[in-house]
Design a protein that fits this description.
alpha+beta, 50% helix, 13% strand, elongated
Length: 210
């Protein structure tokens, strides 16, 4: 049960999951689930793991440790990660045209997890949290930033390229390529992008599916 809960907390991401939902999924009573979560939390602490379980507004989340923040900052701002991957570009296109939008909605469009892409885009200040959705768990809503507008030389979102075919085209990669090719030769190009992030996400999804 601990292993299942750990996996559920991982896939639930920043939205978290509450004890009632865990109990329904595990087909156990709430007290048993709560006790198991507490045991798992102690196990992670005792083993000195790099993640922890926190409870926010009744929802359990798996998060990194605050004491490791300096290393996450180095990762986010490392020169080797200065370019955007194909995954990040696709995610950025979705946010730009459909904002405000939640992580789950982005993942439904892309078909793969978007945690890493969202993290990188927030770190590069191209997108930001703009509120909370009126849904169970109050998921974060994402939108583009002033820096995004400046980077692409836009005075307003109305200057984004026409996206009439974007809504129903299942080939998101090609559609994203078309959209950003229209931004007058800005610095982001698919040829120069590092695809490691996309491969890592795809591999993670295959493991989860199996």
């Amino acid at each position: 049960m601990k292993s299942i809960i750990e996996g559920l907390l991982f896939v639930s991401g920043d939205e978290g999951i509450d004890a009632k939902q865990l109990a329904e999924i595990l087909e156990e009573d709430v007290p048993t689930v709560l006790d198991t979560v507490r045991q798992l939390r102690k196990d992670l602490q005792k083993a000195g793991r790099g993640v922890q379980i926190v409870e926010l507004a009744g929802f359990f989340q798996m998060t990194s440790l605050p004491i490791h923040a300096v290393y996450f900052e180095r990762l986010a701002y490392s020169p080797s990660r200065s370019s955007l991957s194909q995954s990040a570009l696709e995610t950025l296109a979705i946010v730009a045209y459909r904002q405000p939008i939640t992580r789950v909605e982005i993942e439904e469009i892309r078909g793969v997890r978007a945690d890493r892409a969202l993290h990188n885009l927030v770190a590069k200040e191209l997108i930001e949290e703009v509120g909370r959705a009126d849904q169970p768990g109050r998921p974060i809503l994402y939108g583009t930033t002033k820096q995004f507008m400046e980077y692409f030389g836009l005075s307003g979102l109305n200057e984004l390229p026409e996206a009439s075919s974007f809504e129903n085209d299942v080939n998101l990669e090609e559609e994203t390529r078309m959209l950003f090719a229209k931004l007058d030769g800005k610095q982001m190009t698919f040829d120069d992008m590092d695809d490691e992030e996309e491969l890592a996400e795809a591999g993670s999804d295959e493991i989860e599916a199996s």
